[in-house]
Amino acid sequence: MKAANSSPNSKTVLPENEKQEAVQEPPMFSTTKIKSKRLSFIPLVFLIYFQVSGGPYGTESIVGSGGPLFAILGFLLFPVIWSIPEALVTAELATAFPGNGGFVIWTHQAFGPFWGFLVGFWKFLSAVINLSSYPVLCIDYIDPILPTSFSPLPHYLVISVSTMLLSVLNFIGLPTVGYAAISLGVLSYLPFLVISVFAIPKIDPSKWAVLGQKGRKKEWPLFFNSLFWNLNCWDNVSTLVVEGVKKPSKTLPKAFLSAGLLTCLTSLIPMLAATGAMSLDLDDWVDGFYTVVGEKIVGKRFKKWVRIGAFLSGIGVYQSQLSSCSYQLSGMAELGLLPKLFGVRSKRFNTPWLGIMIPTVISVLVSYMNFRHVTSLVNVLNSLGMLVELSAFIWLRVKFPGVERPFKIPITRLRWLIAVLFIPFGFLVYVICVGTKIIYLVIAVLTAVGIIWYFCMKIFQAAMWLDFNHVVKKLADYEDFGGYYERILK
């Protein structure tokens, strides 16, 4: 907002609404000059698609744990009660409080730097543990079809090298990652289109209404964890809005809608085809079962194409989630929640190369560990962060009612906003409560490490500032420097 020209002694009286806007205009949190091209609409849609799901791979356990009917209902209802509210909250806050930190900025503005750091820490851990699983899954999927000359290489050496190679595209820039996501999305889904077409003559719709299997109990924690894992993380794109999205207030809602439809349809279509065309034995429906589905419906040789599709999908998910991680670290460095070193940029591509290397190296190290319940661990960490994020959304409506929101959820009354978010809140609490003791222990230890890191960093920063002030005051004792220092203070 431009102020009228005035002398130092003149007073300009602003209308009441303009006073509020002047006081509540949010600062820009990204200090990086944008040099690279931004994402166009289609690459952005596929980038969100891979950050959220990446296709039907990993949805088999939803059928196995809950039965066909509940699995189908899950993909029809869960987006309405969870994905849409999360996407709308992300669209409003990402455009009202723009910056590379994304969700870290929202909680920082609402509850202060400590909670901003803690949410960033939880979400980063969730993302990097999730990242570590994809190179492993990629290798596991294609290992049976690799030449025998490849097999003598140590398994973890292959995972380490492949993880490093998968990070290369992120160094070049977001547009490259976005266009790669389009190719990976189309190619990874082609096997499922073939399976769905071949399954049409064999489909028996009555099989879709099967509630379960006699003598087999439903595994609701696995069902909801798998569903949550496949339809979550819409807020990840908030870390890319400033540098990656053109006209976010118009583009983000459309991109979320398109990515949401793409995610649900790409999971539902092969699920309907497979459950309707095959004899149901829910014990068989575990992760990776779609390779067997491809073999039984299309043919024995088609199994390897499903494996290749899973490999390409894993690459797409890894690339998109790594991009979100790297810009999150850069944003936290700009906020002062991490050392400035974490925001170092490549001179050629202007990408946060250290922010890319850190999650890459951590994901390699984590991939050497044997986590039995990775999905649950990732979900609980992410849910803790999301509880604070949704609370920050409510509080920011109260704290900064006059901030310009280029995109705003069309609900003004606070009690209606709370009512809309009541089910998402309840579901997040449920996901946290179904965790196991070992998961709670791991999260407690990691959280303690993060809190210690935060306060040590604050103490170090304070010590550095006090030491700097002491040196400057000593220099100010000299006659030639004292006047200069006094002028600086004024």
From TrEMBL:
<feature type="compositionally biased region" description="Polar residues">
    <location>
        <begin position="1"/>
        <end position="12"/>
    </location>
</feature>
<dbReference type="GO" id="GO:0015203">
    <property type="term" value="F:polyamine transmembrane transporter activity"/>
</dbReference>
<dbReference type="InterPro" id="IPR044566">
    <property type="entry name" value="RMV1-like"/>
</dbReference>
<dbReference type="Pfam" id="PF13520">
    <property type="entry name" value="AA_permease_2"/>
</dbReference>
<dbReference type="InterPro" id="IPR002293">
    <property type="entry name" value="AA/rel_permease1"/>
</dbReference>
<feature type="transmembrane region" description="Helical">
    <location>
        <begin position="438"/>
        <end position="456"/>
    </location>
</feature>
<dbReference type="GO" id="GO:0005886">
    <property type="term" value="C:plasma membrane"/>
</dbReference>
<feature type="transmembrane region" description="Helical">
    <location>
        <begin position="39"/>
        <end position="57"/>
    </location>
</feature>
<keyword id="KW-1003">Cell membrane</keyword>
<feature type="transmembrane region" description="Helical">
    <location>
        <begin position="255"/>
        <end position="274"/>
    </location>
</feature>
<feature type="transmembrane region" description="Helical">
    <location>
        <begin position="416"/>
        <end position="432"/>
    </location>
</feature>
<feature type="transmembrane region" description="Helical">
    <location>
        <begin position="153"/>
        <end position="172"/>
    </location>
</feature>
<feature type="transmembrane region" description="Helical">
    <location>
        <begin position="353"/>
        <end position="371"/>
    </location>
</feature>
<feature type="region of interest" description="Disordered">
    <location>
        <begin position="1"/>
        <end position="27"/>
    </location>
</feature>
<protein>
    <recommendedName>
        <fullName>Amino acid permease/ SLC12A domain-containing protein</fullName>
    </recommendedName>
</protein>
<keyword id="KW-0812">Transmembrane</keyword>
<keyword id="KW-1133">Transmembrane helix</keyword>
<feature type="transmembrane region" description="Helical">
    <location>
        <begin position="69"/>
        <end position="91"/>
    </location>
</feature>
<keyword id="KW-0813">Transport</keyword>
<dbReference type="GO" id="GO:0015293">
    <property type="term" value="F:symporter activity"/>
</dbReference>
<comment type="similarity">
    <text>Belongs to the amino acid-polyamine-organocation (APC) superfamily. Polyamine:cation symporter (PHS) (TC 2.A.3.12) family.</text>
</comment>
<keyword id="KW-0769">Symport</keyword>
<keyword id="KW-0472">Membrane</keyword>
<feature type="transmembrane region" description="Helical">
    <location>
        <begin position="179"/>
        <end position="200"/>
    </location>
</feature>
<feature type="transmembrane region" description="Helical">
    <location>
        <begin position="377"/>
        <end position="396"/>
    </location>
</feature>
